[in-house]
Specification:
By secondary structure, the protein is of the alpha/beta class. The chain is built from 22 helices and eleven strands. The chain has two domains: 288 residues, Rossmann fold (3-Layer(aba) Sandwich), CATH 3.40.50; 204 residues, Orthogonal Bundle (N-(1-d-carboxylethyl)-l-norvaline Dehydrogenase, domain 2), CATH 1.10.1040.10. The strands form three sheets. The chain has a five-stranded parallel β-sheet, with helices on both faces. The chain has a three-stranded mixed β-sheet with strand order 4-3-9. The chain is globular.
């Protein structure tokens, strides 16, 4: 029995020869750093790093290599996995018709785990070659005060970083806000141009939010620094889209099994759907890669595209996951095999989400909505319902509640949106319809589960948290639709409730 080769630079050519997998066509020894990225996970590796690898395979932008940077204890796993294979990894994309594309991505060239040596992390960020610092730190990573929506200045780690920066003690820094701001301060004091901070997270106006929060933090360190950041640092908005489930042992086994020619060992491959989209505002301080040559839509105004994606795709994910989990489903494609779920999501997108969008010339929204249904049903991707249910307290307020508020303000119906919120409330009770425990994964887990524990004695208990829902509890149109759905979920279950809600909006 032949021993499988391990993915690394020394074995790369042999792996390509023995398996036929596509490998970088460029000389990675000639790739130099230009980007530091916080949040190197599956999505970044299937998306931004893939686009850059595509450019490099065309002989372009070899001076824009990516250095990954981690700040969370869990990032150690990614550091070690990538370091053990020269920062190479496998990306497999899977189409609904079963077609697969497998290739090795080489655009990440190093990884720094900041807690090991914060001063080294700052020096890495501050070096002249770094022209972009990008972020995929999830909605929960931006230190948002859930009650106010503002930057949480009193977060103990933020307080500690502020004091460390004021004392010049970079070796004490803990957060990406502190590390990035320290590097900007070095640039400022040296009279050098700053890097661009490029958010790629699923937040409406992600660049605007990053701009506001970094300026707020920098100003809290010193007013002079805050003014310099305000006047000199670019924060482009972006919209990113590619369904990328968490890597499983089955995914690793698939790479090892390979095709009829054989496989190889990859510690942390990535699997995603074949669809990908990136819409990026053209606002950079020190230039950027030729992203448009790799299929990125570089535009002047991202907002119409991001609203389309956040309110149709992301909010629809929330529309399927809680109902689906309550009904006993674990895989997203199993949920989508049920016609009632497909009809519910299409009705939500058509009746409630689409009226809140801005004009999108040249975009066929009906085709886009049906394309989303097909993407959700892609069994080859093996996306899971629990993944979509995670971090709901970060997601629902940003993706769904703006739809609710705009429709209420315009006098439009909110029955379907209210049903989604009610399904979250029922899910947060922590037990499904088969009396099986639900592992609620949320930054505010204890809070939302405590709120949900009162659902059966007070149908509005979950909504009474104004820090999450604001004044929605005061709106009778919303609360009536919400209570009707929640009561139905308690007495009839998810599937019968969906049937009833659909009957109500389609009569």
């Amino acid at each position: 029995m032949n021993t499988l080769l391990k993915l690394n630079a020394d074995n790369l050519s042999s792996i390509a020869e023995s398996t036929g997998v596509a490998i970088p066509t460029y000389d990675r020894s000639q790739v130099t750093p230009g980007i530091v990225h916080f949040g190197v996970g599956g999505f970044h590796r299937a998306h931004q790093a893939m686009y850059l690898d595509r450019l490099m395979n065309d002989g372009k932008n070899l001076d824009w290599g990516i250095i990954g940077m981690g700040v969370m204890p869990s990032d150690v796993r990614m550091r070690d996995a990538l370091a053990g294979q020269n920062h190479l990894y496998t990306l497999t994309t899977k189409a609904p018709d079963g077609k697969e594309d497998q290739r090795v991505i080489g655009s990440i060239i190093d990884y720094v785990f900041a807690p090991d040596d914060p001063r080294k992390a700052v020096d890495t960020l501050a070096q002249d070659a770094i022209r972009i610092v990008s972020l995929t730190v999830t909605e929960g990573g931006y230190n948002i005060d859930p009650a106010t929506g503002e930057f949480a200045q009193d977060n103990p780690r933020i307080v500690a970083d502020r004091e460390a920066l004021q004392a010049g003690q970079t070796w004490k820094l803990q957060t990406f806000f502190g590390l990035i701001t320290a590097a900007l301060l070095i640039r400022k004091e040296a009279g050098k141009a700053p890097f661009t901070i490029m958010s790629c997270d699923n937040i409406q106006g992600n660049g605007d939010l990053a701009k506001k929060f970094f300026r707020t933090f920098a100003t809290s360190v010193s007013e002079d620094l805050g003014n310099w950041v305000r006047e000199n640092v670019a924060f482009p908005n972006s919209m990113v889209d590619r369904i990328t489930p968490e890597t499983t042992d089955d995914d690793r086994a698939d790479v090892a099994r390979g095709n009829n020619k054989g496989g190889y060992l990859d510690t942390w491959p990535v699997v995603s759907e074949d669809f990908t989209q990136w819409v990026l505002e053209d606002s950079f301080t020190q230039g950027r890669p030729n992203y448009e040559d790799a299929g990125v839509q570089v535009v002047d105004d991202v907002e119409p595209y991001e609203l389309m994606k956040l309110r149709l795709l992301n909010a629809s994910h929330q529309g399927l996951c809680y109902f689906g989990r309550l009904a006993g489903h674990h895989m997203v494609h199993d949920v989508m095999a049920d016609q009632r779920f497909r009809m519910f999501l299409l009705a939500y997108m058509e009746r409630e989400a689409t009226p809140t969008l801005k004009p999108l010339p040249g975009v066929d929204l009906d085709a886009y909505r049906h394309q989303l249904i097909a993407r959700f049903g892609n069994a080859a991707v093996k996306d899971t319902v629990p993944r979509l249910c995670a971090e709901s307290s970060d997601r629902i307020p940003k993706w769904l509640l703006p739809v609710v508020r705009e429709n209420l303000s315009a006098g439009r119906d909110v029955t379907l949106s209210a049903a989604i919120v009610a399904s979250w409330a029922r899910y947060a009770e922590g037990v499904d319809e088969q009396d099986q425990p639900i592992n609620v994964v949320d930054n505010l887990k204890e809070r939302v589960m405590e709120n949900a524990s009162g659902n059966r004695s007070d149908a509005l208990a979950f909504l009474r948290d104004r820090g999450i829902f604001g004044d929605l509890i005061d709106n009778e149109e919303f609360t009536k639709a919400y209570v009707d759905t929640l009561n139905s979920l308690h007495h009839r279950g998810a599937e019968a409730t969906l049937d009833a809600v659909l009957a109500q909006v389609t009569v």
